[in-house]
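To: structure subgroup
Subject: Chain for Friday's discussion

All,

I'm putting the inputs and outputs inline so they're searchable in the archive.
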Amino acid sequence: MEKLKKKIRSFSFWNWVIASIIFRLILIYFPNNLNLSSRPEVSTPLTSFRRLSEGYWLKQLSMSPYAGSMYHGSPLLLSLLGPLTVKRIEGQPNHLLYSLVSVIADVVSAMLIRATGQNLQVAYFGTLKSFDLVKQIEGSEVHSPGDVAALIYLCNPFTIVACMGLSTSPIENMAVILCLYGACSRLIPLAAFGWVIATHMSLYPAILIIPVIFLLGRGPDAPPRKLFLQMHQEKGVLNQSKLPPCFSWGPIIHFAFWALLWSVYVLVLCGISLKQFGGLWEMFKSTYGFILTVEDLSPNIGVLWYFFAEVFEFFWNFFLIVFHANILFMILPLAIRLHHRPCYLAYVAVCSMLKSYPSVGDSALYSGLLGWFVNELSDMQFSLFLFCGYVGVSPLSPVMHNLWIWRGTGNANFYFATTMVYACLQIVLVVEGVSAMLNHDRKLRSLITGKPRDAKS
């Protein structure tokens, strides 16, 4: 009976995957009618298809791709995807090849998310078995986190919009997911490659180094050794074979070696690509410098563009430091509290609340990663409120942008109000998610120690 249930689940999963792919292929034939590539929620100065085309056109004219302050992406991405911006298939929609690459990236990302979710489920079951909680596993309905997360990512409207909007977000998301998959599977060269490429393309994934260190040092789901020793001391028996492993620095040193190797390789390729156009300094200035200094204040779904448009120039550098440092201030305390849940820590790290140029592709990424914890976060509060909030903001944002930019019947506050609501929804999602995860850990601790949840341990 259990095998039959697994077959039905697998069949249903692949049906949804095929349906999502077919839906994307249908939408490819209506890119001009949808006009998604011009939406500020989809395309940013870092992920815009038009800017990618501009950079490739400048390079074809033997000019620097960073001339004119249009292109701010990776030169390697320009070399790989740039030709697809000009290649045409007769009788087919423009940019068909580029759209197909985005569809492939989404499918590969979903498969990596599924495989990582399966590794997390195995690690979680191993944790429960080490605490002799097998009966709780057999007696409860446990959903497959890999399948749920993969389907959330594939069927998420934000993922589809980012794919059909000819954004480079699917490629960036795939690099981030590749890093997490490699770390969970102990494929250290692959994890280092994904981390280097993701950081090279977007800079912000550099913060993933914190959860990756815990993933490699402790594993995907490592129970606290103190709790294990406490339980077995009360029983008077200590099984060394079930004792959780100590923190290991060997894989981390191995990761650092491969990360350095891949970084040198990427920089060498970038140097060769930009040899005639100012070299690596020009790339750092136009990519990382552009991200950190927030030079482009064109509207997006973030909050920094409006804030820096209003702030006095005298305080500009101060608030730049505050906003960027706040990302570290958010992740470091959680790293202390959730060090045994490194994948959930990675989900918090990729949230795009304070990015310079966020897009819906970022939301698609962390929504998919949140599916890994469908069982742990089943009791999360305000889930209906969050769902309704995202549903309400999604159509409201284009309406407010249209009233402000095209019809002239509104002002910047109209659009900024929707971005503020969007940011608040992300904050509530992170806070409630962390609270639900800690509550789940308290339940697990009470089952292990046999004490009430409110008892001091």
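Points worth raising on Friday:
The chain has 21 helices and no strands.
The mean pLDDT is 82.

D.
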